[in-house]
Amino acid sequence: MPFLSDTLSRVKPSPTIAVTNKARELKDAGKDVIGLGAGEPDFDTPENIKAAAIAAINEGKTKYTAVDGIPELKKAICAKFKRDNGLDYTPDQVTVGTGGKQVLYNALMATLNPGDEVLIPAPYWVSYPDMVLLAGGEPTFVEGQLQTKFKITAEQLDAAITPKTKWFIFNSPSNPTGAGYSRAELKALTDVLKKHPHVWIMTDDMYEHLAYDDFEFCTPAQVEPELYDRTLTVNGVSKAYAMTGWRIGYAAGPKDLIKAMGKIQSQSTSNPSSISQWAAVEALNGSQDFIAPNNEIFKRRRDMVCEMLNAVDGITCPVPEGAFYVYPSIAGLIGKTSAKGVKITDDEVFATALLEDTGVAVVFGAAFGLSPNFRISYATSDEALKEACTRIQDFCASLS
């Protein structure tokens, strides 16, 4: 009898974490490495949020809390949804988890049965399909195209839905592409979903506040109120508030679903860190003044990276509406050979050769379900990004 679960054979380790770890190992070994794999702001957590956490420690708020979040945080989340999205929720419609990933996983574990399908637009965040598999479901995909900046159309969505589809996972602005759906584009998708009442919507809004130029964020239940009763709206404090390590995600949705998710959490992690929860209260209720200046920095970096990559013969890099990623196509480089004799047959070979030859660590597109591409996170310094893009330019110029 094998010791390890058969379920493990259905999933793979996170490629983004693997790239980040590889870059860290090379750097620790003394190599000149620029890591562009991690989806993590390089800004520090704002001072008011850190002060709230310190105050919570000093006030002895260090005990177990309610499994799915303290009342004060649930109240702050309800206020946030009303203020930012025009959505009305009560505290018993809210759950708080140890990061957005746990919230998504809890929802899938609480709802999926063998044979249930979860429809995921590609390219996708690397964890979506594997979480579905761990929960016993079957991920299915609909591919965005370079011509539409990797956004799917209503016609594609309608054609991909089957009687077995239980969830549609929606992420805008997107990881890995940064693509954001306009209200009109999202309304076209929600019109399709209205026709299929058996399909629930799981919307990952983690990059809501990271939006640039004239792009205006909106979320499905906001655009189409008829979908409110079958939508789980997921968000968190990791990205906009530079709180990745604090591990707080949250969601709002129908009471029965929220209760079921709490049941899963009660038998796995129990409550998120009490200190992190109090910090998140301040994040949501406190000043939001730092978001706009941070976004200006991200926008400047985005523009520099896109300009430098689009100057490369063989690379096409759409300019994204939000988040802090770009997802360039290397279709024009496939078939070429590096100075060290490596033939670029796909994006994984490209990323490996790039790292070995130049010390620039990126994530290959196949990890996100759409090739031939690679992902760059521009949530790092201007200097590092400029040097990395220069190395990418030189590497691509050396291909023959």
From TrEMBL:
Alphabetical list of PROSITE patterns matching this protein: AA_TRANSFER_CLASS_1 (PS00105)
Highest taxon in the source lineage: Bacteria
Keywords associated with the record: Aminotransferase, Pyridoxal phosphate, Transferase
Domain Aminotransferase class I/classII large: residue ranges: 31-392
Cofactors required: pyridoxal 5'-phosphate
UniProt keyword annotation of Nucleotide-binding present: no
Entry GO MF terms: L-aspartate:2-oxoglutarate aminotransferase activity; pyridoxal phosphate binding
Any Gene Ontology biological process: amino acid metabolic process
EC numbers, comma separated: 2.6.1.-
Reaction(s) the record says it catalyses: L-aspartate + 2-oxoglutarate = oxaloacetate + L-glutamate
InterPro entries on file: Aminotransferase_I/II_large (IPR004839), AspAT/PAT-like (IPR050596), NHTrfase_class1_PyrdxlP-BS (IPR004838), PyrdxlP-dep_Trfase (IPR015424), PyrdxlP-dep_Trfase_major (IPR015421), PyrdxlP-dep_Trfase_small (IPR015422)
Family label: Belongs to the class-I pyridoxal-phosphate-dependent aminotransferase family.
Assembly with partners or alone: Homodimer.
PANTHER family for the chain: ASPARTATE AMINOTRANSFERASE
Protein name, per record: Aminotransferase
Organism name: Primorskyibacter flagellatus
Organism lineage string: Bacteria, Pseudomonadati, Pseudomonadota, Alphaproteobacteria, Rhodobacterales
